[in-house]
Structure formats: structure tokens, C-alpha cells
Fold each of these.
Amino acid sequence: MRILVAEDEKDLNRLVTEKLVGQHYSVDTCFNGREALDYLESTSYDCAVLDIMMPYMSGLDLVRRLRAKGNKVPVIFLTARDTIEDRVQGLDSGANDYLVKPFSLDELMARVRALTRNSYGVSQNIMTVGDLIMDLSTHRVKRGEREILLSSKEYALLEYLMYNKNTVLSRERIEDHIWNYDYEGGTNVVDVYISYLRKKIDKPGETKLIHTVRGSGYVLKES
């Protein structure tokens, strides 16, 4: 899942980014509202974590512009403003959530999970496809009684496939959601990681869950 972090406090930006990366998210970062608008208008993100008081454009103005253009990316505001009026203004601007500084990074991660779940119509942290189970809160993956150990990118790819189960996803769409702007790998990176996942998910004798749709992409579903 791909997240944008826009926060002009560089130490806080780094801490939030490192925590998200440690939770298997792909993260782009910037330090002012103008940059954040450019990112959000050019790429489809699963969530945006935005400071309110940013240079060049406030988070409030940024979200208002996004919503006016029909951009529905889930937004969490980070801010030192903690009055009821400030919270109301933030939510009325179009944000989905509001977290007051200082805050717990674990709480922020829980709120990111909740927003991304809601945007995909998922109501809990446990996702299943057949006998494949993913726990979003612990990052454990099991198939039946067999625990599956995944790299960070393998986990992120499987999470995105599970959020979109029964939906054919193009290679371009997968790449846009799993890799950030800093990625400099090969053009077949999606195929390579799908191959890695298949070796761990679809063992011989088990029902095939990861399917190739020729000319279109990949889909996770029960056969």
C-alpha cells in the first residue's frame, strides 16, 4: 500500500516514514503543501498523512482542493491544534481523521490501517481468501496451519492483492501501489514478485490462488 507523508518537521517526517516502511508500506515524503499537491494529483495513494501548518499551502487548503476535484484519497491530519473548533475545521475540510501532536506512532499506524481498510470496504484486520489468512495488525500470514514468511515487498504485494481479491489488477496498477518514486528496478518487477509469492502461497497440492489473466494482469481468488 502506498502512503504520502507531508510534514515540514523533518525529524517527525523521518520518524513517521520509518515507522510506515517498517509496517510494509511504500512511502513518498515531502515537506510542503505545494509538493504534496503535486504528488497527490499525479499518483493514486492509499492514504495521505498531512501536517496542517505547512509552507506554501496549508493542509486544509490542500484537502479542499483535492475534494473539489473529486480526489477521495483518505487523509489523516497531524497538527498541534487541539481545540474542538480546530478539529471541526479539519474534518469539515474533507479530512477523514485528525491526530494531535504529540501522538503515538502505534496509534497513527492503527488509524492508517483503519482508513485503508474502510476505503476497500474491509471491516476488520483479518482478511481471507480460501484458506489463506492475513492479519493486518500482526502482519502474520498463514495458509491453513502453515505460516508463511514474507519479505516486506512480498507482504505489501499480497496485502494489495487481498484487498482487491477477485479483481484483475494490471501490472501498472500493482506497481503504482507497491513501489514509490525512489524505485529504480527492472520493468518486470511485478512478475518477479508474483513469482516469489506463488512459490510461498501456492504449494504443490494446494488450490491455486494467484492467477495470471493473459494480457491483463493478476488476480487473487479461489479457483
Note: The chain has a mean pLDDT of 92.
Amino acid sequence: MSVSESRAPAVRQLVVALVATIATLLTVATDLGFAEGASFPSATPRAQCGPGSLPEGKVQGRVPAADYDSGRAARGYRCNARQVAHRPGTGGYKVLRYTDRAGHRCVYYDSTRTFPTDVFEQAQSGFGVVVVDVTRADRPRVTTTLTTPTMLSPHESLLLHHRRGLLAAVLGNAYAGPGVLELYDVRTDCRRPRLVSRTTEAVLGHESGWSPDGRTFYVASSGGQTFVALDVSDPARPSILFSQRGVNYHGLRLSDDGRTLYAAHIGNDLSGATLPGEGLRILDVGDIQDRRPDPQVEVLADLTWREGSIPQVAQPFTRDGRDYVLEVDEFSTAGLNHGSVKPQDATVGAARIIDVTDPRRPSVVSHLRLGVQQPAARAASIGDPGAGTPLGGYTAHYCSVPYREGPRIAACSMIGSGLRIFDLTDLRRPREAAYFNMPSSDGAAAFSQPAWDVRRRLVYYSDASSGLYAVRLTNGVEDLLRPGRGDAP
């Protein structure tokens, strides 16, 4: 037997092993939403529209210029969803819902993207954070607007702690802002929030996060590269627990025990069209939660993804004893040199589900993407109203789930594509279930984190160019909700 013949069985075994390994990798790639041989996640299967729908055209999520020319866009697009109410005006980044002790149902939403860019529109519809009585869902009634300094420009920091009945925000803008923290009591009467305190302790402002027990409010300034934890156990006397400089975090969300923080990590080098290190950063904030003196914050893991843009926020939830986050990227380019990348060539990060059961080893499970966000569709859609901007267009911005334990549904504001509803029954293979989009003449501008009213099968969201919408799920999509499980996180 020759040497080559003696090696043949070993070679055959190696080939078999390699084939098996490749097959396994292809299976994993398919589970993650990657098409075979491709380097980009596939689009999520589109919704099957039932009676009463006014569906989109060939490309999922697209409002083509021809629809504006023909008048079709003015009718809007809906699939397994219908409008219950609409308050015209402007909108910003958050829509929040709360029911007070007397049973009044309220919605809060910020009315500006970046103050004072919407000042002319707001002069007609109102400034600040709008307070709406939605006890009658079909007849929303504005009871007041919050026009204190922070509420005129909370940027992306407006958040509500449901158990404590505290509405919080920091004065901020697209870069940083002064970071003045304001806390409002909404538990007594959600229709008339009462200012509890105002402090400069937040340092700088942009985005934020609540600990689940409501004792800690976290603030990230993004461009200002500051990260601050504030003790709000006594909301009348907030104080700094921890402060760090030199980190560029966006949205901040926490585990159920408040000891693990999921930070949308933008990265510190802003010079490029993409940002090195952008993705999800998981932090151990147990020392802050325990109120230890001189608390230390440890980085447990950094996770990146090749199709990323600008990480916005990672919303935690659980399923069958495992921990996940629904992470969403905003826009299509990043950095100070985004103008060097043509919009049609820019990557849309969209959204993804990440398993964080082991916080030191997070892994992407699946993706939430629209057909119009795929590379092949970008060039063809660039002439659509609003599609040519790198800071909007057919990209994502915020997602939410109706409750933290076992949600089977998610809602995402995907800017030019409006409100998108996803079926999360199979976390590895999510599907689109419904959508609602009412574009203006300049295109849709759905930036806001959606809010849920589970019992009434409603989703609230705002469009920056047309105001607040209450949307009811129909045609069986409402069955993905579980009545009585509470409000949005």
C-alpha cells in the first residue's frame, strides 16, 4: 500500500467532517435569517393581509414616488390594522401609556425631534410633552402640555416607571444637551402630571433608562460621552450614584433584577461612516443596584453585527426561562463622514433578537427586517419622498413589546415604513403580522417607541410629521396579545 493510499481513509474522514461542519454552519446561518451564500440577513416574511386592508405594493415597507404622484399614498397603507383615533400635529421619539389609581388612561408623547427644528409646525399644534386622556380611545383629549425646560426638548430620554408612577426625562439634543433631570408624578392624576423635582445632576442628556425597581435612573449623553446613574429613591432629592466619561452609549435598559444593563453601544470614534465597536454592550451594574460606595461597573460582553448602523436600544424580555433583548438600530449610516456614503449604498441595521441568558456570551437569534431595507432594494427606492436622507427614510428607530414575560408580538416604528407589527411566536423565525402607515407629502416619519393597550388591542405611536395615532389590530393578529398581562415596559 502506498503512502497516499494509506492516508486515503483519513482524508475521506476529514472531508466528511468538513462537509458536516459546513452544513451545520449553513443551518445556523439560515436560522439567523441569512440566505445561503449571502452575507446579509434576509427580510422577514411579509404579512398576509386580511379583510379591510389597504396593502402596500411589491416591495415590503416601500411607498414609491409613483404612489404620491397618483394620490395612492394619501390613502395610507394598512394591513390587519385600522385607525381608531388620530391627533394631528408633530411627534418625537416616545409614546408612553399609563393608567392611574382612579382608572384614568393617559398617553404621553414628546412633540419634537430636535428642538427647535419643528418650531413652525409646533406653533400650530403645541410645544413640549403632550398629555392625552385616552379613557375613550376613539376620542383622545389633550388635558395639558408639559412645557418646562426639559420637556421642551427631552430628545430620546422620556420614560415612564409604571409601578412608581414617575415620568422622567433629561434636557438633551442629538449630541448631548445640558442634562437637566425632571421628575413628574403621574400616579395621583395622570391627566395632570405634577413636577416633583428638577436637578442638573444628570450632567448631559440624550437617552436614558429606568431600573425595574424605579430607584435608579440612568442617563447617557451619547455624543457627550457621559454615563450617569442617579438615585431617585426619593424623587424630590435625586443624587449621583455613579458617573463615567469617555463612553458613547445610547439607550439603556436593564434586567429584571436591575443588576445587568444592556447598553446600545455607539462607539467613541465618530470619524467614519461606520463606527468601530458598535453594537450591544452588557454591563454589570450590581454595585449601583446594591448602593455600594465607590461602585464599579464591569463590561461583561460586547456584541457586534456586520449589518449594523447606529444601535438605538435593546428592550429586554423573557421566554421559556431564557433572557432576550429586542435590539434596534437607527438610520443607515453613522459618524461624521456619513455624507461620503451614498444613501443607496448605506447599510440599514434594522432590528434583531439577541439571546442574553448568559450575559457574557450573547448571540443573535433572528432578525426583523423589511424588504425595502435590503441592499437590493435601496437604489430603486432612493427617489421616494424622504428616502434619500441618511437620518431617516426606510430605516428603523424604536421597537417595543407589550410586556416583559413571554411576549409573542412586537411593534416597531420604521420611519418611512410606518408602524410594523411582528409575530414573535417562533423567536428564530419571526414574521410580519400587520402594519399601518400614513405618509405625509414628504414621506412618513415614524420615530417613536410604540405604546400598548393590551386589553383594547391598541398600539399607539407618533409620526413626526403628522402626530399621534391609535391603531387597533385586526384579522386575528390581536390573538397574539395576552389580555390582562399589564402595560408596556
Note: The first helix runs from residue 3 to 31.
Amino acid sequence: MTEPVHLSIKPVALDTLNESVVLLARDCPALRPERLRGSRKVVLKCGAKTLIATILIADDPQLVGCHEVGVTEPAFRRLGARAGVRATIAPAPPAESLDAVRAKVRGETLDKRQLASVVSDLTNHRLSDIEVSAFVVACASFMTDQEVIDLTEAMAAAGTRLRWGADRVVDKHSIGGIPGNRTTMIVAPIVAAHGLTMPKTSSRAITSPAGTADTMEVLAKVDLTEAEMRSVVDECHACIAWGGHVNLSPADDLIIAIERPLQIDTPEQMVASILSKKIAAGVNHLVLDLPVGPTAKIRSAAHAQRVRKLFEHVAGRLGLFIDVMITNGREPIGRGVGPVLEARDVMAVLRNAPDAPRDLRDKSLRLAGRVLDFDPALRGGAGEARAAELLGSGAALKAMEHIQAAQGPPPRVSALGARVKEATAARDGFVTGIDCFRIARIARLAGAPTDPGAGLDLLKRLGDPVRQGEPLYRLHAEDPADFAMAAEALEEAHGFSISLDEAP
């Protein structure tokens, strides 16, 4: 038997996002390019560690030599090896779940074992982006309720499973799509002040101007390890952290990376995504916010009822108690859209400032009240009054300051973008519509959330009277190119509808 050729691992400063990629020289003696015509997947072995990766062939000897294997940043992190360590490489066998992927593409129903196999291969990066795309699109076309249950369970089991020393571990989640809907950062300190356990792991924005993690990072460190997260929860009863380091439902992150550019967001995949993360985080009681509006993710009452029932069915089968709230999604919540502006609104509510956004305060209290109603020590329906008491007394503010101190200072000081442009009313009348999607797009073009100080400061709400030339909102940006693009989009369509008749 021929001895395998050993190659030296060379880190390559390329971020290939979710995909593990390695580079070989065209004249590498370990693996000739013609051996890869049927597949671009290879298996890289370094001691007891193994990595499935996509291969690229390099013709530049400065990039990778013939006795080296170039390992891109995500692959290097996953392999966990040091530069210069010897490794072997060989063509990877086909992923075991490919038969299940093909079956789903044909429109067949997959059983629990098949879905677990797909999730395992996803988590271990054995499937290419094309193969993942085929699975995602096929699931978007047709999934049974049982498939959603089995997929959710498999995704929750694939990564880290957190356990907490509390009978009730609570959480609140919104399905998103409404700019400024930063209620989590008010709900969590209220719940913490009451004494319930709420280990909140939040996402960064993918297509929105700010995720909860982006906004919280204006105030505190969110990039916590599992050990740091546990320490904060032990000390404060709650945390508001980015979930990237905790490895909860890792297959979900890979699926989302495919769904976003394809703009796929079916109820079935939404349920599997959200509930798998909650179950993996150790949550057993969840309040879910479903905003409904003409430019929200859910645009009709009938659609909302269908999504609610699916969430309740799957959660119930998997032992998660869920309380679904259908809320108003006709317009943004609060005044700020973008991390710095949203953090300003959150802190104004927690400080009981006279100019705090009333809608953000009221919605946060309703959601916090439903979470507190999970506490058996409270009389039924008393949760919202208790939430208002904790907010009004300053206890929630103290809890937030405690959480901020425990998580540590933010990585940088963020300030509001200095470049400003106003969107103005073209006529007298009333604000009869606000396009949430358009508002979010303009804020992202301004640089949010990459530039935390970029975004929109909303000055008018639905039903407000306006005069011609009166400002509807202010655009803030820092980068001149981002400012120019956002300003151009604002001039093209600012997202506000104005009519002579007052909105019903």
C-alpha cells in the first residue's frame, strides 16, 4: 500500500463565510486535479481531527506550495490545528444524506432518520452549498407537520445543548421584519429584575438594519463564550448575548445562509429555525411575537393564524410551552432604526424618560407581562402590572446596568452618524402608510448595522398630520458612499404614504 503524502498546513487569509475551503497547488503530489472531476469535496486529516472541505486548485506558488495545503479561515478554525502541522488529504466519499436530499427534491416525505442524517451532514460540512440549496428549496416546496417536528428536533440535538438550574427558563422572540422592534432589551431586564431565568441569545442582522446583538453591542460586550454567558446568567438571572460562540443549532445558521439570498422564509422553515435554537438554549417557556402588517413578514390575519397554530403544534410535541402574541406590524416600533438610535430608545424607556417612545414601552410591557405570567407565584394575568411596577420603580434599569457590567464594555464607542439628510412630505395631509421594508432598506444602505451610528430617526407615525416640506425622518450616515446611496434611495421613495384623508 502506498504511503499517503503528508502536506504542511498553511493558513490562508481568506474568509469563505460558512464553507470550509482548502487550496492545493496544481502540481501537488498528494492529490492530482483529475481525481476530483466527480466531486470537489476532500477530507483533510490532521492527527485525530478530520475536516470535510471544498477544494480549489492554485497556480500561484506564493499562495500555496506543492507540499502545502492552504486552509482558509473558517476551515482553519474548525480543524483546530496549528500552522505547519502535517496532514493528509484524499477525495471525500459522497455524503450519506444525499439520497435523502434527492428524495426530497422528488417531492417525497422524509422520515426522522433521513432528516437526522441531513442535519448531521450539514453540521459537519459534508454537503456543498449546491446540495444544501437543493434541500432548502425542496423543503420550501413541501413539508409535512411531522417533518417539521423531526427537523426541529434533529437541529436542536446537533450542536450545544444548554442546561440551567431552574425549573422555568423563559425567553421572548420576535419573528422580525419590523424596524426598531427592540423589545428584547427591555423585556430581559424586567424579567431579570423579577428573578426568572432568561438566557437570551440573539442574532446579528442579516438583512435588517440591526439585530438585537448589534444594538446591545452599543451598550455592552455581546461576543460571549458559553462559560461567560453562564457566569452572567448566574449573577444577573439574564443575559443579552450573541449566539455565535455558543454553537446552538449550527445547521440552522447554514440553512439561513442559503435562505437569505433566495429570500425563502416559509412558515415550516421559520418554525424549525426558531424552535430548534430555543430548545438547544434550554428554554422551556417562550413568548413569541408575530407582527402582522402590509409590509411585514406576515401580512394577513389568516396567515398569522396558520403560523401560530404550526408553532403551537410543533412546540407542544417537543415539550416547549409557547404563548404566541399576534401584534401590530403596520409601522416601525420606536423612533430609531439602526443600532445607536435603537439603543437610545431602549435606554429612554428603561430610564422612564418623558420623551421615551410610548409604543416601544407599551409593547415591551405587554410582552414582559406575558413572560412573567409563566411564574406560578404570580396571580394569573398579573404579569403586565408587575412588569410596569419593575420598569416604573427603576428596578429594570438597575437590572440592565447589572447585565451590562457583567457582560463587559462594548468593543468600541459608537456615535450617531454625522452626515444627515431629511425625508420631507411632498404635500399636506396625514401619514396613512409606512413601508417597513423600504425603511429597513434605506437604513441598511446608510451603513447600518456595520456602522452602528447609521440609520433613520423617525419623526412621524401613522395618523400624524404633516405639512408640505415637514420632515418625516432624518437619515444618519458616516461613510460618504453609503450616505450617497441612501440619500438617492430616499429621494426615489422614502417609504411614507401621505393622503388628504386621515388613516382609519
Note: Residues 172 and 287 are 5 Å apart (CA to CA).
